[in-house]
Structure prediction request, 263 residues.
Amino acid sequence: MKLFFLGSAILLAASFGLPAQAQSESLEPVVDVADAINQTAKKSQLTIDSIADNMQERMQQYKQINKQIDGLRVYTRQLEKQIQNQNTEKSELSSSIDEVSVVERQITPLMLRMIDGLDAFVELDVPFLPEEREERVATLQDLMDRADVDVSEKFRRVMEAYQIEAEYGRTIEAYTGEMDVEGQVQDVDFLRIGRVALVYKTRDGASLGVWNQNAGAWQPLSDSYRNSVTEALRIARKQLAPDLLMLPLFTDSIVSATRAAGE
Prediction:
């Protein structure tokens, strides 16, 4: 712009004191030079504007990159904390694994003793569901020899067997089976009330028997209990609501009454 004004001033100064034609001829080069200077100045200004815009854009990019760097620093610090916590957990897990190995060596003999105890208990207990209970114990014994089953699963199965046996003591159940009655194998209905009473009734209702735990043997049951046994069987099958029943209970060889709770 300064060049433009300088050219204009020279042009005006030269225009005074010369004839019109001479002035025109003498001013043409000056005008051309001024015009060239103006074009050059215009191009320079465009270049400057482009550089300024570019610098502004670069400045915005610089600010954005700085923000990203700040975010990455915060993220990196957070990751460092997580890595530190993971290393701590790793150390704790390593210690726990070592302790688990010790526990496994101790718990395996315990489970073997528990299975042996369960086997002895089933053998000495009231003889209800004998095949099912003996098979459960045999399955546990086979399970202990398997290498493809975790110790935790073995322990779970042992505890499950104990829980099942515990449930037997507070439930009433009716199931069918075979019984040697007077030298003849017959289909009978068994009635179990907890572990305090185990009674059978033949399908025709002609024979009743009760397990005498004190004697460790079956003994005939009086016909006077037939209706009570039949009603108790229906209660156990949830065909009747629970009710008070008279059933045999052996305690020191004395026959007493017990309640069919129907739980």
